[in-house]
Amino acid sequence: MSDRPNIAAREPAIVELEEGKNYWFCMCGQSKKQPFCDGSHSGTSFEPLKFTAEKTGKAALCQCKHSGKKPFCDGTHSKV
After folding, report:
1. d(C-alpha 63, C-alpha 25), whole Å
2. What do you get for the CA distance between the two ends of the chain, in Å?
3. pTM (2 d.p.)
4. Which whole-number Å values give the CA distances from 20 to 3, 10, 58, 73, 78, in the listed order?
5. Three-state SS for 41?
6. Torsion angle, alpha carbons of 29, 32, 33, 38, to 10
7. Checking phi first, is residue 56 left (phi over 0); if not, alpha (psi -120 to 50) or beta?
8. What would the pLDDT profile of 45-61 be if each residue is shown by its tens digit?
9. 64/51 Cα distance (integer angstroms)
10. What is the C-alpha to C-alpha distance for residues 12 and 55, in angstroms, rounded to an integer?
11. What are the pLDDT digits (tens) for 14-49?
């Protein structure tokens, strides 16, 4: 695997987050549980990104792995 993440999808994943709960965002693009980590990065230079939800509700999480606002989508998928 290279040092560039795989593009899991070219649109955000709309997920339900719970305020105060910790989540592990996939940074490698290999996880079968996108946009969350399932350990597929093992043996690579990638590590998941831990984040805590600031509020309960739907969120658009990046799946192209190139967002400047990870784990959230910033529209970068339209340029990769």
Report:
1. 10
2. 18
3. 0.93
4. 31, 28, 14, 20, 31
5. coil
6. -80
7. beta
8. 999 999 999 999 999 99
9. 18
10. 18
11. 999 999 999 999 999 999 999 999 999 999 999 999
